[in-house]
Amino acid sequence: MAAQSERVQTQSPEPTNSVVASTDGPTTPGAERTPRSGGRPSDGPSLASRFAPYLLLLPAIAATLVLLLWPLVETAVVSFQDLNRRQFINHLTEWTGFTNYTDQLGSSEFWAITLRTVVFTAVNVVLIMVFGTLVGLLLNILGKRMRLLLSLGLLLAWAMPVVAATTVYTWLFDQNFGVVNWFLDKLGWHSMAHFNWTSGQYSTFFVIILLIVWQSVPFVAFNMYAGLTTIPKELYEAARMDGAGSAKIWSSVIYPIMKPFLLATTFLEVIWVFKAFTQVYLINKGGPDGLTRTLPVHAFLEGIGSQHFGVGSAIAVLTILMLAALMAYYFRIILKQEDEL
Amino acid sequence: MRRSLFGRTWPNLIAVVLFVFFIFPVYWMFSTAFKQNKDIVSRDPVFLPLDGTFEHFDRAVNVPHFWTYVTNSLIVTVGAVLGSLVIATLAAFAIARMRFRGRKSFVLVVMAAQMAPWEVMVIAAYLIVRDNDMLNSLVPLTAFYLMMVLPFTIWTLRGFIAAVPKELEESAMVDGCTRTQAFVKVIFPLLAPGLMSTSLFGFITAWNEFPLVNMLNKKEMAQTLPLWLSSFQTAFGTDWGATMAASTLFAVPILILFIFLQRKAVSGMTDGAVKG
Hints:
With 341 residues, chain A is an all-alpha fold. Chain A has helices spanning 15-23, 44-78, 85-89, 99-105, 108-141, 144-159, 162-172, 179-186, 201-228, 233-241, 246-274, 278-284, 295-305, 309-337, and one strand at residues 4-6. Mean pLDDT of chain A is 83; it is low at 1-43. Chain B is 75% helix and 1% strand. Chain B is built from 13 helices and one strand; from the N terminus they run H-H-H-H-H-H-H-H-H-H-H-H-H-E. Classes of the chains: A mainly alpha (341), B mainly alpha (276). The interface between A and B is large, with 122 and 123 residues.
């Protein structure tokens, strides 16, 4: 997953952002036709300027077609094939129509995994958003030195490469020499002294969720804090003068202002967690007994692990469709907020 | 604002607890990497390895092909970032400065591509690369990484280009520059911070990528550092010292970049934000 990037819309607290908004406003069409002293005389400035944007976009479009659209189409095409080890080695193409889909949609395993993925995503996102918001609020009321300290911790957790972070978590939760088990034992929970975290479904999920939340909270917290700094102090003071308590200040001052940000971030986190692969896969390879398989891991293990490329692709297409539905909803929110697009 | 002693201390207390929670795994990685073996596999964990050792780093670095992994990672990352910078600068200029038919759809495609489910497209990528006989090559890997960072690069550079006042460009053109010259001489120098931060974030993405390289390049000669890192757990069994030393070596460049980037990261987050 690594560094994924997304636009999160707030009330443009960042100075450059507001500059963007103001300079990127409606442009007069005439501005494009500024006289060009060096323009080629043959095709004339208007023709050249009409094609110029497409020429500039050409490399980006070409890259997207070859490197993004092709794999997407290939996924869809293969999902209609019976492509297993034998066909794969002999370069055979055997069409099976919708068999892969009907098999998946009719299998209880697929639906169990889908439900698990949804619950997994929901738990993660709720924890990330609640915890992240609270940490953001805390950053806002801390003194300068404490804020710097906490920011440093958040920054390091955020910056840890996913593969490295996952490795470190396996070590923290190691059965015999992991520091977590030692700590729980010292706290008096002696049955945890040699607990094998990857032996059960819930304990494996616990580690995975802790890892994902640990790495995702800083993003929400920093964003929240950045947004909070744009709320004028007078608003708080006015609310307090009116006798508002903390809860009231949240619901009548902070929440209305931060709502677009919270909504957009929630959806981003949903999309990110839903397709999370590296953490889930590396902690326990979907085990024990496939009980921690989520959809992306399932697609991978079926498609690549068992070399049922057709089946894996069908699962991938179903996953992509679910993500597309989520994204469509996200875009509706973004487009409503955004008129400068 | 006057508050009780309790009211003033509890935020600081929570902050300290949270600081420990967030920093501890990172600290534990570093400290394990420097610990002697007897301290790693001990009943009571050693929290401050005062008699540290570099032997784990020695072992981690001296696995066969280590320098191949490093070189490959650098080639793939630098190639992807430079390629996407060139392509993205052109596209970003078009969408920031020009009005044309299809602009809005292009922007939407960029936003959607930012969230492309690469995790489940690995199967298709594998089949495509295999059918074109390019498994165990750095070329397709670089190309896919380029595509992974391209949407974000376009999106962020668009913001930076739009922030340059149009008047600057126009006055350059009044002075006799062509539009291209105006871009190269006026806008491009002002883009330096944007180019820096996007390329660093692109670097982080490509540096970290695991699922795709895991699939496409099974031969060591074409593998990158994330695979080196994950291979340790089997190669060394439970040699946690070497594993943590490797994790440290892998993470340190990114952590340094991030701290270096911190202000950009935090202030730029509302525009084009990045998640690790």
